[in-house]
Amino acid sequence: MTPFFSVIIPLYNKEKYIQNTLNCVFNQSFDNFEVIVVNDGSTDRSLELLEEFSDHRLKIIHQKNQGVSVARNTGMENAKADYICFLDADDTWKENHLKAFYDTIAKFPDPKMYCGRYVTQISKNTFIENRFIDIPENYEGYVTDFFKSSLINRVALTSAVCIHKDIFNEIGGFDPTLKSDQDLDYWIKIALKYKIVITAENTMVYNFINTNKSLSKDQSKFNKLTNLNQYFEIEKSNESLKLFLDVYRIEYGLNYHILGLKEQSLEYLKYVDQKNINFKTKLLFKLPPFVLRLMLRTKQNLRNYGIDFTVYH
Questions:
Q1: Long-range contacts: 76-80, Cβ < 8 Å, 24+?
Q2: Of 207, 225, 245, which residue constitutes the final position of a domain?
């Protein structure tokens, strides 16, 4: 029987999480699916733990380490189902996650992209319910302004997204040249071309515990970021897209500023409409990088106690 869903899990050194992640998939109330785990050259015990599972729906593909984009694309290339769901190896689904997608697809069969609601775990015992601008709580249906609705929290989060395989066949997959925000790049391309629907329930837990390392020690992910300027012409006539892109231009610019890379920071900021930079953020750009690094460490420590905030909105 052809599976209704193909679940794509990229795996690289997630021995701490992979068993729990697979268990949450195999415990789904909707069971017509296949699981494709793409082992992206793991060097820890991830593969050993993975091979303890004997479920016939599990398929393991091995490749040398090429990054999460290539791993996800490999999974999509091998997917048998028309509908593809993504799950990162440290996130978890509630048992009704696939059933919620199945029911929403039955009600809205025409769109190519479906977004599930999710909660964000920022500490061991702290979970944040995310809200989306102009999308009421428990609403199920079309997202009328994807970019505006995503200004506070992203409507499309990788582990809470389901796409029709037509998208992969028509526009391709994730950009393997990007070191960071490959998913952001992909969702923008999809949102500009296809209709999007959101489910009504929170069915996924996004693991945001200790995800942000000190920027001063992790410069590699800024070597190749999403090319936000490829949308110059479109954003001229799309106010929501312009504001959405400016939010990320500001974020990238501030990250470079924290690293002490002034030239790269200014390169992003010069394309930002000044009305889209709030007062708090302007103050941060006036502070020296060493102060910002101290503030960043403080923010990360506060998150461990369940306290989180943003300066971009």
A1: 76/6, 76/8, 76/165, 76/168, 76/173, 77/168, 78/36, 79/6, 79/8, 79/34, 79/36, 79/165, 80/2, 80/3, 80/6, 80/34
A2: 207
Residue 311 belongs to some domain of the structure:
no
**Mean pLDDT of the chain, nearest integer:** 92
The DSSP call for residue 61 is: E
Please say whether the dihedral angle defined by the alpha carbons of residues 152, 12, 178 and 8, taken in this order, is positive or negative.
Answer: negative
Q: Could you give the CA distance from residue 185 to residue 160 in angstroms, rounded to a whole number?
A: 16
For 23, the enclosing helix (H) or strand (E) is helix 18-26
Asked if residue 55 and residue 162 are part of one domain, the reply reads: yes
**DSSP 8-state assignment for residue 78:** T
For residue 84, give the H/E element and its range: strand 83-86
pLDDT of 217 > 50? The answer is no
Decide: helix, strand or coil at residue 9: strand
Q: What is the DSSP string of 28-53?
A: -S---EEEEEEEES--SSHHHHHTT-
Same domain (yes/no): 180, 274: no
pLDDT in tens, 263-290: 999 999 999 999 999 999 999 999 999 9
Q: Are 215 and 258 within 8 A, CB to CB?
A: yes
Domain boundary among 185, 207, 229: 207
Q: pLDDT, tens digit, for every residue of 48-97? A: 999 899 999 999 999 999 999 999 999 999 999 999 999 998 999 999 99
151 neighbors 133 (Cβ within 8 angstroms): yes
- 3-state SS of 136-165 is CCCCCEECCCHHHHCCCCCCCCHHHEEEEH
Q: What is the pLDDT of residues 178-211, one digit of tens each?
A: 988 999 999 999 999 999 999 999 999 999 885 5
User: Domain of 113?
Assistant: 5-207
